[in-house]
Design a protein that fits this description.
With 253 residues, the protein is α/β, with parallel strands linked by helices. The chain has eight helices and ten strands. It has two domains: 1-86 and 237-253, ATPase, nucleotide binding domain (Nucleotidyltransferase, domain 5); 87-231, Nucleotidyltransferase, domain 5 (2-Layer Sandwich), CATH 3.30.420. The strands form two sheets. The protein has a five-stranded mixed beta sheet with strand order 3-2-1-4-5, sandwiched between helices. Strands 8-7-6-9-10 form a five-stranded mixed beta sheet.
Length: 253
């Protein structure tokens, strides 16, 4: 059995996926980079090679070019995975540590896409920072939002204004879970308004990337878009999987 390794190196985490020659996922790894993306990626590769005879390595993500192997552009990798594994979806929302994307799909093919600006508002790293500032793990942060009944309005287009709003709400005694829900809604509105850029986000809609693990963000997107949001299996690993699928599709196996 031949195995192929796809590795997606982002600003917050390294996502690795091992695929067999039948294109089935045999193993996945999600490792926080903690400021050392290359070292974290090398650790993941070493661990995987100790268990699998890897024929080829394919990389993607903001740090994908640092480790060698065949590099695949993030949009190409993500659209390949979406086209093969999620052919029924028309819109793909993807949110990672620093990058956010909207992909529009037609018949399993990429028809259009857009990405975020350099501003950190509306990214996973911003949510991580605010969770830490409030004294919660990101897992606690994501579930607390679901307790909210009356989320306050928080500015979402600028991290400075968002933090200022949150501090003001804390000073007023607003419960943390209401503030967190308000922040999730602000991030979702910012994503739709900037990354979506007025595009028609047709359903069905899939939510991918590490931030899709947040139940608060899932609920926020559903509230903002007034549509059901689907989080598929392997939602955090689609880039890594797509890097492998892209090369296998093109006969480079």
């Amino acid at each position: 059995m031949r195995y192929y390794l796809g590795i997606d190196i982002g600003s917050i985490a390294v996502k690795a996926a091992v695929l067999d020659e039948n294109r089935q996922v045999a193993e996945q790894h999600y490792l926080r980079v903690k400021g050392e993306p290359r070292k974290t990626a090398e650790t993941a590769i070493e661990q995987i090679r100790s268990r699998f005879m890897i024929s080829d390595l394919f990389s993607t993500g903001s740090g994908g070019k640092r480790i060698g192997g065949c590099f695949v552009n993030e949009i190409v990798a993500l659209s390949r995975a979406a086209g093969e594994l999620l052919p029924e979806f028309r819109t793909i929302l993807e949110m990672g540590g620093e990058d956010s994307k909207v992909l529009r799909m037609e018949g399993g093919k990429l028809s259009d896409f857009s990405t975020n600006s350099v501003c950190a508002a509306g990214t996973g790293s911003f949510l991580d920072q605010q969770a830490s500032r409030l004294g919660y793990t990101i897992e606690e942060f994501s579930s607390l939002a679901l307790k909210a009944k009356h989320p306050p309005r928080i500015a979402g287009r600028c991290t400075v204004f968002a933090k200022s709003d949150m501090i003001h709400l804390q000073q007023k005694g607003t419960p943390d879970y209401e503030i967190i829900a308000g922040l999730c809604l602000a991030v979702a509105r910012n994503f739709v308004g900037t990354v979506g850029r007025g595009k028609k986000l047709e359903k069905p809609i899939a939510f991918l990337g590490g931030v899709a693990a947040s139940r608060g963000m899932r609920a926020a997107f559903e509230a903002v878009l007034q549509r059901e949001i689907h989080v598929p299996e392997n939602f955090a690993f689609m880039g890594a999987i797509g890097a492998v699928l892209h090369h296998l599709k093109n006969g480079k196996n």
